[in-house]
């Protein structure tokens, strides 16, 4: 696996959106393309790690040397991430996991009803990061925070509330973050932070992985 700083380490990355089915032809999704998470998986492999990439429905090629597990819904992603995290050293949650799903996907295509409103009842999905954090020996945990306002406050709150070792915050207002090729991140950990300016996601992922490796190897995890 090469001889970078993460040589021999097991890293799990999640990427992309989740799709929550409404009926056989409709779903609730989001605009995540998977580019950020796929770039992170590639950068972690470049740093020497043994990488498992749990991918939502995206149209991207698998980075060379990375093991990929494809999923569709948040619950499938939850199960695949928990299985992959068994015995892993680092989990990086870059996926845009749907917070809610229709309680029951209809077995047949829903029909229109003479102009009457259609009500969808949504149930909260399990929190994948929280589930990984609750394991007996959790890996070094890196979450993302996608916010359109009050980025620093919400990110630091997620860092504490979800029991993370690091959080990567991105501003996703006005067409930023999702889908596009560039991104900028602010990394927070318990007693520090660093701003990574806007650059291609491939370069940003390398810098993110270097910061994660540095904090993980200096023993600043759980
Ligand atoms: O895929 P791209 O088009 O390249 O776009 C990249 C991105 C904007 C999607 C990415 O950089 C990003 O911000 N990913 C996280 C998006 C998100 O859902 O953020 P959040 O603030 O809603 O969630 C916070 C964290 O909790 C995330 O690490 C998320 O993976 C995790 N989470 C959320 C819900 C849930 N049920 N389980 C989780 O683990």
Automatic annotation (TrEMBL):
<feature type="binding site">
    <location>
        <position position="158"/>
    </location>
    <ligand>
        <name>CTP</name>
    </ligand>
</feature>
<keyword id="KW-0479">Metal-binding</keyword>
<comment type="function">
    <text>Catalyzes two sequential steps in the biosynthesis of coenzyme A. In the first step cysteine is conjugated to 4'-phosphopantothenate to form 4-phosphopantothenoylcysteine. In the second step the latter compound is decarboxylated to form 4'-phosphopantotheine.</text>
</comment>
<protein>
    <recommendedName>
        <fullName>Coenzyme A biosynthesis bifunctional protein CoaBC</fullName>
        <ecNumber>4.1.1.36</ecNumber>
        <ecNumber>6.3.2.5</ecNumber>
    </recommendedName>
</protein>
<comment type="similarity">
    <text>In the N-terminal section; belongs to the HFCD (homo-oligomeric flavin containing Cys decarboxylase) superfamily.</text>
</comment>
<keyword id="KW-0436">Ligase</keyword>
<comment type="function">
    <text>Catalyzes two steps in the biosynthesis of coenzyme A. In the first step cysteine is conjugated to 4'-phosphopantothenate to form 4-phosphopantothenoylcysteine, in the latter compound is decarboxylated to form 4'-phosphopantotheine.</text>
</comment>
<dbReference type="GO" id="GO:0004633">
    <property type="term" value="F:phosphopantothenoylcysteine decarboxylase activity"/>
</dbReference>
<feature type="binding site">
    <location>
        <position position="99"/>
    </location>
    <ligand>
        <name>CTP</name>
    </ligand>
</feature>
<feature type="binding site">
    <location>
        <position position="144"/>
    </location>
    <ligand>
        <name>CTP</name>
    </ligand>
</feature>
<feature type="binding site">
    <location>
        <position position="162"/>
    </location>
    <ligand>
        <name>CTP</name>
    </ligand>
</feature>
<feature type="binding site">
    <location>
        <position position="109"/>
    </location>
    <ligand>
        <name>CTP</name>
    </ligand>
</feature>
<comment type="similarity">
    <text>In the C-terminal section; belongs to the PPC synthetase family.</text>
</comment>
<keyword id="KW-0511">Multifunctional enzyme</keyword>
<keyword id="KW-0456">Lyase</keyword>
<keyword id="KW-0288">FMN</keyword>
<comment type="pathway">
    <text>Cofactor biosynthesis; coenzyme A biosynthesis; CoA from (R)-pantothenate: step 3/5.</text>
</comment>
<feature type="region of interest" description="Phosphopantothenate--cysteine ligase">
    <location>
        <begin position="11"/>
        <end position="222"/>
    </location>
</feature>
<feature type="domain" description="DNA/pantothenate metabolism flavoprotein C-terminal">
    <location>
        <begin position="6"/>
        <end position="214"/>
    </location>
</feature>
<keyword id="KW-0285">Flavoprotein</keyword>
<feature type="binding site">
    <location>
        <begin position="126"/>
        <end position="129"/>
    </location>
    <ligand>
        <name>CTP</name>
    </ligand>
</feature>
<keyword id="KW-0210">Decarboxylase</keyword>
<comment type="pathway">
    <text>Cofactor biosynthesis; coenzyme A biosynthesis; CoA from (R)-pantothenate: step 2/5.</text>
</comment>
<dbReference type="GO" id="GO:0004632">
    <property type="term" value="F:phosphopantothenate--cysteine ligase activity"/>
</dbReference>
<keyword id="KW-0460">Magnesium</keyword>
């Amino acid at each position: 696996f090469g001889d970078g700083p993460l040589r021999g380490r097991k890293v799990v990355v999640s990427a992309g959106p989740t799709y929550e089915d409404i009926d056989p032809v409709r779903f609730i999704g989001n605009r995540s393309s998977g580019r950020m998470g796929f770039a992170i998986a590639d950068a972690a492999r470049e740093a020497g790690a043994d990488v498992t990439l749990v991918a939502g429905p995206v149209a991207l090629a698998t980075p060379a040397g990375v093991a990929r597990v494809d999923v569709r819904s948040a619950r499938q992603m939850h199960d695949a991430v928990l299985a992959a995290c068994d015995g892993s050293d680092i989990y990086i949650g870059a996926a845009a996991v749907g917070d809610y799903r229709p309680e029951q996907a209809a077995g047949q295509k829903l029909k229109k009803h003479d102009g009457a409103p259609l009500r969808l009842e949504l149930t909260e999905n399990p929190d994948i990061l929280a589930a990984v954090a609750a394991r007996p020996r959790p890996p070094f945990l890196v979450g993302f925070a996608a916010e359109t306002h009050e980025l620093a406050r919400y990110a630091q709150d997620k860092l504490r509330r979800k029991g993370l070792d690091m959080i990567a915050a991105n501003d996703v207002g006005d067409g930023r973050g999702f889908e596009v090729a560039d991104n900028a991140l602010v990394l927070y950990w318990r007693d520090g932070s660093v701003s990574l300016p806007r650059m291609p996601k491939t370069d940003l992922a390398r810098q993110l992985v270097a910061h994660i490796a540095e904090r993980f190897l200096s023993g600043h995890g759980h």
